Amino acid sequence: MTDTAPDWETTPLGSYRAVRASLTTGRPAAVATVTNVDGSAYRRPGAKLVVSATGDSTGAVTAGCLEDSVADIAAGVVESGDPRTERFDLTNDAEGVWGMGLGCNGVIDLLVEPVDESFRPAVEELDAKRAVTLLTVVASTDPTVSVGDRTTLTEDDDHVATERPGLPSAVVDALGDAVADARTADRSTTVTVDTDAGTVDVFVDVLTPAPDLLVFGRQRDVAPVARLGREAGFRVRVVTGRGGQADTDRFPDAHEVVPTRAPDIASVVDAPEHTYALLMSHNFVDDRVALESLLTTDVPYIGLMGPRKRFEEMREEFAEEGTSLTTADLDRIATPVGLDIGGDHPTQIALSAVAEALAVHNGRSGGRLTDSSGPIHGRPSRE
Amino acid sequence: MTDTAPDWETTPLGSYRAVRASLTTGRPAAVATVTNVDGSAYRRPGAKLVVSATGDSTGAVTAGCLEDSVADIAAGVVESGDPRTERFDLTNDAEGVWGMGLGCNGVIDLLVEPVDESFRPAVEELDAKRAVTLLTVVASTDPTVSVGDRTTLTEDDDHVATERPGLPSAVVDALGDAVADARTADRSTTVTVDTDAGTVDVFVDVLTPAPDLLVFGRQRDVAPVARLGREAGFRVRVVTGRGGQADTDRFPDAHEVVPTRAPDIASVVDAPEHTYALLMSHNFVDDRVALESLLTTDVPYIGLMGPRKRFEEMREEFAEEGTSLTTADLDRIATPVGLDIGGDHPTQIALSAVAEALAVHNGRSGGRLTDSSGPIHGRPSRE
C-alpha cells in the first residue's frame, strides 16, 4: 500500500512514517525541519522534509523552491551524523517585496539532523496516538549545550532523552510556559532561553498524532472518501460488515479495512478523541446502529450521510427506545454531512465530507477565508 | 492523459467526454440517465452512466448498487438502438425505511439510450462552453410521440432535432416555464405535458459546460491543485510562463498546460464566465500583473494565494498607478484563498482552494451543512 499523493505533498503522517521506516529498517535518513520563517511562508515552522540516504524525499519545506538544495545538505548530514542548522535567504530585494513571498522569497531557518534514536520516543508516542513535544537546540552560546541536543516531552510531561544529550533541566523548566502555549495553539516555535553561561535557542516542536478517519460503508462512494481522506492526512480505516481480501482490494487507499458489524463499531475505535467517523453504509438500520454504538465513545465527529430527515427518523427511533440524545451528542453529529460547496458527484461529495472532518479536527468552521479575515470589502476606497 | 479518478467517480465532464468519444470514434455506447427518484437518492436526476459496447462504464447513477444491472441493460440498448426506460424499485420494506435510502433503496427511474446523432448538438454546444437543455420523452400515451424523441434547446432557445424525431412544438411551448425554472435552478427534472391525444412525460435535462480552473504558477504545489481540481470536475488549465513539454510532464493531471506570460493571461481565458482562476506563482510581481490582467475579464473568481497583507500591498501599488479596484473587483478576489478548514500541508491547501472554487461555482458559502439546514440543535428535547 503506497501513499496516493506524491511524496512532496505528504502530510505529517507521511513524514512520521518515513522517520519510523528509517528507525525500523536501519536505513539512514535525515530530517529537515523549518524552525523559523521571516515574512510569510508557504510552510510553517514544524514542516518537515525527510531525505533517505538514497536521495528519496518525503515532505516539503517550501512550495518547491528549496527542496533540491535541502536534499544535498541532508545527504551531508546522513554522512556526518551531525545535526546542523541552515538559513536560506531568498529575499528578492530587486522586486521590493521583502517578506511578501510564500516560501520562494523571505528567510527560512532549517534544522537538518540525522534520524537517530533521539526520534524513537516520539515515534512510539505517536504510534500510541499520544501527542509529544520535541525540544531541540538550534543555536547556543552556552558551551555546555550543542545544536541537536534534545529532550522529548510526553503528554504527561515525562522528560526523555535518548542517544543525544538532553537539555539542562533549568532550560526545560524555563520553557514551561512556552511549551504550554505551543501545545495549546498546536504551533511549533523557536524560543530563546538565557542560561548561566549564555543563551540557547530551542525549537519547540509540537507533534500530534494523525487523526483517524473511520468510514463505515462498502459501496463505491467509499473509495473517493478513502482516497481524499488519506491525501488530507487522515489515517483511513474503512469498516465493512464483510471485510476480508475483497474489501481490502476494493479500497486500496485505506490504511486498514476492518471487518466489524454495525453494533460493534465502538470496539474498533482505539483512539476516540482522534477519530472522525463517517457513516455511509446507505443502509438506514446499519447507520442507525453504528451511530448508537459510536455515541458511547468520545469521538468528536460523526458525519452521517443522507438528508436531515433521515436523521430525524433515526432520532424518533431512539426516542421510542427511550434513548435521548444529549446536546453534546447532537453537536457531534454532522448531517447533512460536509461543507456546503454544491455538486452531487461522488468526488465532490467526498471532497465536502473530508473537508468538514478536517475543519472539525482543526477547530474551524468552514466558510470562506476571504470573508472572515478582516476588512477589505468594507473598507472605504482610497481614491 | 487519463482521468485520475476511477471512472465510476467521474463528474459531468467525464460523462460528456465519454459521449463525445463515442460520437467521434463511432464506437457504440449507451447512456443511462436518472430521470426521477422517489425518496432521497445518492444521485440526482441528470446523473449519468455511459457504457461502451465493450462494457467499460463511466459515471454513476447510484452509490454503486445498480451499476452492474444498468450496464447489462445498456448493452441491450446498444444492440437494439432503441431508447427505453427502466424503473428500479429498491424499496426495502422489511426495514421499514421506505424513502430513507440513498440510492440503494427507494425508487429510481432511468432513461437508457444509444449514443446517436441526437447528442451531437449538445456536445457541440458544451464544447463551445454554452449551456444546453435536452428535452427527451420518457413516457407517452400520445401515439404521435415516442420514448426517446428529443429536441435540444440552445442558450438562445433555438430548437434542434437530429436523427430522432423532435418534440411537437406545442409540447416544447408548454414546457417553457418548466425549462426556465430548471435552468435557473440548474436542476434536471421530469415534467408531464398534456397533448390533444394523451400525456407526455419529458425529461428536461439541463447541461452546463464544465467550469475551467485556470491555475497560474509552476511550483510543486500546483500539482495537487491540478489533481484535485480535475477530480472535482473542473477542466484544469495550468498557465506557466515557460510551458513546453517540461511543464506538461510536471502537471500530468492538467487537461492543458498553457505557456503565457503574466501580463497576457487574460488572452488565454476563452470562457470568462465559466473560469475560476487561482494565482499561485509565489512571485509577487507576477501574481500582481496576472491579477491586473484577469480583472479586465469577466471571470467570477480570482483566488490569490498568500496572506491578506500581500494583497493589500498589491492594492497599494494599483492605487499608486492610479488604478482603483471597484467593489465588484474586490468581490471576485478571494484572499486568503480557500475555505477555512485548517492545515497547512500542500494537499490540504489544495483541498481548501479547490473546495472554494467549487463553492463559488455553485453559489454556495462553504460553511457546514449541518449548521445551515434547519433546527436540530436548537430544538427542545423531546424527553
TrEMBL record, chains A, B:
A Pfam family per the record: XdhC_CoxI
Stretches that traverse the bilayer: none
Span of domain XdhC- CoxI: 24-89
Domain XdhC Rossmann: residue ranges: 213-356
Spans annotated as Disordered: 364-383
InterPro entries given in the database record: MoCofactor_Util/Proc, XdhC_CoxI, XdhC_Rossmann_dom
Name this protein carries in UniProt: Xanthine dehydrogenase accessory factor
Organism: Halogranum rubrum
Lineage of origin: Archaea, Methanobacteriati, Methanobacteriota, Stenosarchaea group, Halobacteria
